[in-house]
Amino acid sequence: MSISDQIVDSLVRNKVEFVTTVPCKQLAGVIEGVEASPDIMHVPSNKEDEGMGLCAGAWMGGKRPCIIMQNTAIGVTINTLATLTQFYQMPLPMLISYRGELGERVACQVEMAVHTKALLDQLNIQTYHFHRPEDVSEMDTILNHTFMSRKPTAILTDSNFWGGY
Amino acid sequence: MIRSDILKELVPVITDELVVCNIGLPSQELHMLDDQPSNFYMLGTMGLASSIGLGLALNQKAKVLTIDGDGSILTNLGTLPTIANNPADNFILLIIDNGSYGSTGDQPTYAGKKTSLTAVARACGCDNVIECSAEDTVATVTEALKGDKMTIIVSKCESGNVKVPVIELDAPVIKHRFMEEVKRRNA
Predict the structure, then answer these.
(1) Tell me, what's the ipTM?
(2) Is B158 left (phi over 0), alpha (psi -120 to 50) or beta?
């Protein structure tokens, strides 16, 4: 089973029923799987902070949400993470494509990669870095942990995890 | 009429509805006029009231009214295509358009100048967009709440504010009591 399918399976297994996405090449397979899943409502958003608002509404509506996005967007979501997700104590797993890591071909992507972990750390967001394909086996535990703790968590998935560009 | 006049008239109509209310003075005014567990007050995060309202409406059955402002819609303009393409017939978005950033000192917004949010919403693909005067707002919202169709209402009113106390409720308390209300309405 592909990594993308394993991720979608884990979302369904953990009763994540609402997913919003802003695309990244690395996440294309997951986004396709989420769209095709009969167990998940998929609402693409135009910007990541908008997506976090949708997720907050979904959570208050009784559904487990997830946002799928690229690490370059961490900067524009800081206010939302602090004043909505964290301030109101809402869970939010963030499945993040970690661009700008080893194997990257676009130099500009590195510029946000060097800030990604520092920003998440500054926000006290528990962060899990998937570097090898087998790391996907931690998805279930991370999702369970996120909804238990009612906090945002970040799963950074780098190029090596996805099998290279 | 200014926003607080509209809210005052609106209270009897929305007191028992799930309301997601915009950051700053709109939430403070609603809280002062009619604090209810069915009100979700935004204490921060400008721009996301419509996104939270849509996310909520798509994921449960009860009607949801988001009270938003022109400034906040402009901040999160991407919300309108998302709303248009993911319609929830239990969702009503009321944009109180006073042409100004009320909470920060009534600086003018572009919605008060050349930009029509009604036209923008329609161009984004929203099917049911109604522009009304401040005076007609309560009747328009009442009608929309009775109906079964996602509705975007742009209420054109004057800018201006009244003195209101800040909301001292803790954010998790606002969320908790709101979620209990949502559960009760979906039981």
Answers:
(1) 0.97
(2) beta
Domain that holds residue B113: 3-186
Say if the Cβ atoms of B57 and A49 lie within 8 Å.
no
Nearest chain A residue to B72 by CA distance is A50
| Predicted model pTM | 0.97
Does any CB of chain A come closer than 8 Å to the CB of residue B40?
A: yes
CATH 3.40.50.970, applies to A3-106+118-157:
yes
Residue ranges of chain A whose pLDDT lies below 70? 165
Instruction: Write the pLDDT tens digit of every residue in B78-93.
Output: 999 999 999 999 999 9
Q: What is the mean pLDDT of residues B51-74?
A: 98
Give the nearest partner residue to A88 out of B54, B56, B172, using CB atoms. Answer: B172
CATH number for the domain harbouring residue B24: 3.40.50.970
Q: What is the DSSP string of B126-178?
A: -S-EEEEESTTHHHHHHHHHHSSS-EEEEEE-B------PPP-S-HHHHHHHH
User: What is the count of structural domains for chain B?
Assistant: 1
Q: In chain A, what are the domain boundaries?
A: 3-106+118-157
